[in-house]
Amino acid sequence: MSIHVDGVSKRFGDFVALDDVSVDLPTGQLTALLGPSGGGKSTLLRIIAGLETADTGTVTIEGREATHLPPQKRNVGFVFQHYAAFKHMSVAKNVAFGLEIRHRPKTEVKKRVAELLELVHLDQFAHRLPSQLSGGQRQRMALARALAVEPSVLLLDEPFGALDAKVRKELREWLRRLHDEVHVTSVFVTHDQEEALEVADEIVVINEGRVEQVGTPDQLYDAPATDFVMGFLGPVTRLGGAQVRPHDIEVSTDPGQPGAVPGRVVRLLRVGFEVRLWVETAPSEEPVSVTVTRAHQRQLALGEGSAVWLSPTSDATRVDAVV
Q1: What pLDDT does residue 45 have?
Q2: Cα(297)–Cα(268) distance, rounded to whole angstroms?
Q3: 320: pLDDT confidence band, cut at 50, 70 and 90?
Q4: CA atoms within 13 A on the CB side of 267
Q5: Is 209 left (phi over 0), alpha (psi -120 to 50) or beta?
Q6: DSSP secondary-structure letter at 248?
Q7: Tell me, what CATH number does 307's domain have?
Q8: Looking at the 3D structure of the chain, how many domains does it have?
Q9: Of 229, 257, 272, which residue sits at a domain end?
Q10: Residue 70's domain spans which residues?
């Protein structure tokens, strides 16, 4: 394993940020630390980087005990949400900075910077200042700067959090392609479930300072270990005493469906190609949320007031609801 975290705990006064966390982050993979704000994911990343000190526990990086090493001795690259660029330096000088303070030969620095700027598609902007770049371009510059010193581990703390939705999507697709090219062990923090599911090889779900579950995106989405993981990795609703995803509910207008729950559509909302239904199954319960395609909604002629029967699909992900 590239990074081994064993029994790490961290408190800030009375607040428990991490509570006896142990996790292995595989070599060469892109791992997401996913969880709600205040759950402990950024604290864990900063402890791995050496920017915070754990109260208890150990951190091993590439087989080397790193718990008490300063950040500059851990051979990690760190990318912050807000770029932390040197405003008075050109893009090329920003990328070269880490190499220059290590007193690398000028020819080596020049070659490495040129390679990295080409890799992140910024070679034509080498002489611009960071203020002359877009937000997405500045973040690509920050990634190039972190990669310049050839770190064994690349750590990214909500790297796209300051960007708008369209640029975020473009950059996370780009990050996935970049990782497949350079193969550096990467760990990124995010609270965006779609981002983690789309980009990561493995996801560590962290909540209230504890690891809820570790697995591939498919494992976590299809076989959540807890109701928290299921609810955090996508919308859920309650049907027949269990939590189920809205798109895993079959809708029928045929009252003869065995085991189906009868109900009535009380609200309908179209969002692009999806149609979201809220179905009242009992006056005392919250309406069941159901997602169908526009074509299916038209086929069944569903509208507000329609009588329907609901049942989970045969392959639906279900977690028994806690009453």
Answers
A1: 95
A2: 10
A3: low
A4: 8
A5: left
A6: G
A7: 2.40.50.100
A8: 2
A9: 229
A10: 3-229
